[in-house]
Amino acid sequence: MTSTEPDTSRDPQDEYLDAARDCILDVGWRRTTLTEVARRAGVSRMTIYRSWSDMGALLGDLMTREWAGIAAASRPATGRPTSLADLATALVDLVRALRDNELFVRIVELDPELLLPYLLSRPGRSQQALLTLLEETVLAGQEAGWAREGDPRLLARTMVLAGHGFVLSALTMVDDRTTLGDLDRALGDLVERALAPGGPR
Asked: What residue ranges do the domains of the chain occupy?
């Protein structure tokens, strides 16, 4: 027998974030309000205001959830890369998934200025989490012998900066002789060459 009981194990905030995501996909960020989010979520406006004082705060949580989910899905089955090839593949998969994500695409299409603080001023929470994960992964690779010597923090930041270009600007580099697949393979090669033992220090 199939249960018709509601899923009470899910955090209600996830449902509110789902409603906000649907709003942004439909009408964009500028036309999305907390009132509309509440309406779509089937709750009062004050319920939403108890969690987020404005749309900026809600968007921050939504983007953190979205990008963190993509990063988690891009990890190897082992949970963390255990070789240079694993790391390169995971990073390429992450770049491709971000570039194809419907929320990311919608923001770039309608409200690209929302991304500028995270590109020009400071890393967001999901970027910071990725930096920490990459730093730990590079350090583990150095200890295991499959990543070259060097400051793991600097190497992690270099990879994230390279990734930004492949997420945001890859389409500007596509033409009748260069495909997105070509660029993604070049990114994987770039990561492997940059981190290969015996490489530049």
From this structure: 11-53, 63-195
User: Per the structure block, which two tokens stand in for 135?
Assistant: 């730093």
Q: How far is the C-alpha of 49 from the C-alpha of 34, rounded, in Å?
A: 8
Q: What is the per-residue pLDDT across 151-176, written as a single tens digit (0 to 9) for each?
A: 999 999 999 999 999 999 999 999 99
Separation between Cα atoms, residue 57 and residue 51, nearest integer Å: 9
**DSSP character at residue 117:** I
Q: 11-53 belongs to which homologous superfamily? A: Homeodomain-like (1.10.10.60)
Which class for 91: exposed (0-12), middle (13-18), buried (19 or more C-beta within 10 A)? Answer: buried
Using the Cα atoms of residue 140, residue 93, residue 78 and residue 88 in order, give the sign of their dihedral: negative
Q: How far is CA 61 from CA 32, 37, 42, 90, 194, in A?
A: 15, 14, 20, 24, 33
pTM over 0.85: yes
- The first and second tokens of residue 54, run together, are 């404005």
Q: What is the DSSP string of 55-71?
A: HHHHHHHHHHHHHHHHH
User: Residue 163 and residue 96: Cα distance in Å, rounded?
Assistant: 10
Fold of 63-195: Tetracycline Repressor; domain 2 (1.10.357)
Distance CA 43, CA 38 (A): 5
